[in-house]
């Protein structure tokens, strides 16, 4: 019982350590680094040149398509975040006022759709929003309009609405958590000092829940800006987003280095969003500071 | 603070609206799957299972279901083993290399899936791995690893070191400690994380679409079918998938939510 098991232990431990570091480095870190390097290569026709150059980045900043599309996409995703918060905040606030079991059951029910097939929801929303869709037909049947509305059919508005519905649960959870963390005695103090409900809400609850709102906005923004399938499905010809442009570089346009450069720029935007979220939102900036 | 009745009414109305927004897109395909759809409108007069019968003859769908399960189960197995190993290592001390490892594991979860997918796509091409089921499995494992790792780590931190030390003091070897002490305590976390990872893999589309060769998983199959246009068997397929997802969610919730969570402030 002496030397052998310990020797075997050491071998197993070595293998485990190798796997623990090797696999993530090989399949996560290495591809991401390779990706950065790829964005510095260039393509001529169908031939890939493995030479370092900044030509892809120069193209991004000088061509008149890409910067405006990125700006438009960022604005779109901020609008998605805004819509999600506008609907998510009242829901989170409503939940935080409930008691015991009911509160967490409702919260679960609001989060479950996140695990429900994303493609299916996207498809269903498309069939609701379409020119001949459920929404237009209901509005016509109710006599509110007599021509199908087109402002939410296969354009950026459709992308905005679809992404908002898909990502709404991501906004509810952080706001709910920040509302739950507000100590009850602060609200009692506010009431004792003669604060009305509205005053307590705007002077105490709202400011203290802002970190949760910022986390929510960050989550929604990051998830929305990386999505290239939703705009493809509901955006039609005019609903062009940055994600779609990147995807097309790897499909029809077949310019992988340029697509990589665009993705690096996307990653930079995402990192900025995450840093802003980490600085002003979430756990650290919570009630206890 | 007592809320005014008007505020409560408004808040519950918004909540109701949000429930409709979230569940409407899920229920509409289920309901319509039982009826015949013609020229874009639903014939409500009689319920039938035609769409489901038609589905059993659709070979592409059956193959996609098989692929989805192969990918999901493999990714779950790989991520559970790797996640456990990494969690055990990171829980055993503090060091810069552990912090870096943890950061790397979280990267695919922080970055948009398009970036994870594209970086793997380029990587596979450069190291000459042909795109296949294997590449999909790698993509899914990388994607769900952060969640699995995090779940196991949280449980390990809950167990603490005293039990492990007791095991060693009583003369158990490292494998014995792992199999007789740690594993039983990790069991529910592993099941919960595994089911959740399977649910994520089951639905994963953006990474899959980038790293797949010719193989279809269910979301890819649905994506292709939907782009071609509307057929009733899509709705039947959708209903089946949603039923499966619901079951998975219930199982995951049962294993991951602590018993006292529901009554936390009651």
From TrEMBL, chain A:
It comes from the Bacteria. Belongs to the binding-protein-dependent transport system permease family. CysTW subfamily. It comes from Dongia sedimenti. This is ABC transporter permease. Residues 70-277 form the ABC transmembrane type-1 domain. Keywords: Cell membrane, Membrane, Transmembrane, Transmembrane helix, Transport. It is found in: Cell membrane. It is a multi-pass membrane protein. The keyword Cell membrane applies. InterPro entries: MetI-like, MetI-like_sf. Pfam families: BPD_transp_1. The chain crosses the membrane at residues 12-41, 73-95, 107-129, 149-179, 200-225, 258-280.
UniProtKB/TrEMBL annotation, chain B:
This is ABC transporter permease. It is found in: Cell membrane. PROSITE patterns: ABC_TM1 (PS50928). Belongs to the binding-protein-dependent transport system permease family. CysTW subfamily. It holds the Pfam family BPD_transp_1. Keywords: Cell membrane, Membrane, Transmembrane, Transmembrane helix, Transport. InterPro entries: Bact_Polyamine_Transport, MetI-like, MetI-like_sf. The keyword Transmembrane applies. Residues 65-253 form the ABC transmembrane type-1 domain. It comes from Dongia sedimenti. Signal peptide: none annotated. The chain crosses the membrane at residues 69-88, 100-124, 136-156, 177-200, 236-257. It is a multi-pass membrane protein.
């Amino acid at each position: 019982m002496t030397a052998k098991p310990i020797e075997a232990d050491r071998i197993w431990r070595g293998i485990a350590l190798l796997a623990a570091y090797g696999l993530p480095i090989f399949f996560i870190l290495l591809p991401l680094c390779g990706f950065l390097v790829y964005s510095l290569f260039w393509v001529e026709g169908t031939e890939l040149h493995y030479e370092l150059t900044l030509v892809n980045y120069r193209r991004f900043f000088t061509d008149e398509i890409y910067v405006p599309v990125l700006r438009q996409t960022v604005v779109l995703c901020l609008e998605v975040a805004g819509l999600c918060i506008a609907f998510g905040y009242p829901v989170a606030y409503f939940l935080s006022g409930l008691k015991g079991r009911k509160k967490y059951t409702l919260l679960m029910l609001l989060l479950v759709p996140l695990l429900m097939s994303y493609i299916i929801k996207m498809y269903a929303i498309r069939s609701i929003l379409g020119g001949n869709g459920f929404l237009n037909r209901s509005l016509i049947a109710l006599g509110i309009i007599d021509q199908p509305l087109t402002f939410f059919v296969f354009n950026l508005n459709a992308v905005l609405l679809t992404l908002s519905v898909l990502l709404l649960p991501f906004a509810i959870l952080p706001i709910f958590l920040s509302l739950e963390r507000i100590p009850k005695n602060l609200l009692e103090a506010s009431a004792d000092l003669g604060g009305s409900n509205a005053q307590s809400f705007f002077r105490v609850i709202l400011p203290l829940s802002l970190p949760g709102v910022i986390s929510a906005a960050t989550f929604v923004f990051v998830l929305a800006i990386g999505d290239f399938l939703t705009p493809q499905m509901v955006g039609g010809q005019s609903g062009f987003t940055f994600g779609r442009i990147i995807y097309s570089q790897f499909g029809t346009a077949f310019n992988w280095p340029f697509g990589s450069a665009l993705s690096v720029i996307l990653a930079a935007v995402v990192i900025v969003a995450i840093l802003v979220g980490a600085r002003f939102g979430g756990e650290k900036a919570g009630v206890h500071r | 603070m007592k809320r005014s009745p008007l505020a409560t009414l408004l808040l519950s109305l918004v909540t109701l609206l949000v429930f409709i927004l979230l569940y409407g897109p899920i229920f509409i395909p289920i309901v319509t799957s039982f009826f015949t759809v013609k020229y874009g409108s639903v014939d409500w007069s009689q319920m039938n299972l035609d769409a489901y019968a038609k589905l059993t003859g659709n070979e592409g769908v059956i193959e996609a279901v098989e692929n989805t399960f192969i990918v999901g189960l493999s990714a779950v197995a790989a991520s559970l083993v790797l996640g456990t190993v990494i969690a055990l290592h990171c829980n055993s001390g503090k060091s810069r290399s552990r912090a870096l490892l943890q950061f790397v594991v979280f990267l695919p979860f922080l970055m948009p899936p398009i970036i994870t997918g594209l970086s793997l796509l380029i990587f596979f091409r450069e190291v000459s791995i042909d795109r296949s089921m294997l590449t999909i499995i790698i993509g899914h494992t990388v994607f769900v690893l952060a969640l699995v790792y995090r779940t196991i780590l949280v449980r390990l931190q809950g167990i603490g070191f005293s039990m492990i030390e007791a095991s060693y003091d009583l003369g158990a070897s490292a494998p014995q400690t792992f199999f007789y002490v740690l594993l039983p305590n990790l069991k529910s976390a592993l099941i919960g994380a595994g089911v959740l990872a399977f649910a994520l893999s089951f639905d994963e589309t953006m990474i899959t679409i980038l790293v797949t060769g010719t193989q279809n998983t269910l979301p890819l199959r649905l994506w292709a079918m939907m782009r071609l246009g509307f057929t009733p068997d899509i709705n039947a397929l959708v209903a089946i998938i949603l039923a499966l997802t619901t079951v998975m969610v219930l199982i995951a919730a049962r294993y991951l939510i602590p018993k006292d969570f529901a009554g936390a402030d009651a």
